[in-house]
Predict the 3D structure of the following.
Amino acid sequence: MNAARSEREKAQKIVADNRKALHDYHVLDEWEAGVVLLGSEVKAIREGRVNLRDSYARVDKGEVWLTDVHISPYSHADYVRHDERRQRKLLLHRHEILKLTGRVAEKGLTLVPLRMYFKNGRVKVAIALVKGKQAHDKRETIRRREVERETRAAVKERRR
């Protein structure tokens, strides 16, 4: 069991995280999607030159598009340059796209990428259906995190 789990963890190499999204939104549901990329973009992603902050996804004419993801140019590219903030198509099953279309139409719900990673050599994006947090929700999350940290510290101290 542990061997299979460690193989899965090795197969998934997280390249970029969107921690700000977890701070600003309540995650309601999550999907894994492939991304249509250029070769130089894949190489740049392997170098870790990705920023998911302020990015989002939208459904347009039965397709899902990833917008405002910043992928810096590949360091060893000479004349082949890609547009750093171009829209990139997400690859999802038809039934997933239909489900997303219905859910995103609800007021206050958005699609946001949470992390970008390699899975079996392919770039994947975890997109989430989210609802915005208000200021008091953010404070509550911070307070809860601090309480958990203090509890762990107390338990650790008690074990000594």
Q: What stands out?
A: The chain has a mean pLDDT of 84. Strands lie at 12-17, 25-35, 50-51, 56-60, 63-67, 70-71, 88-91, 109-119, 122-132.
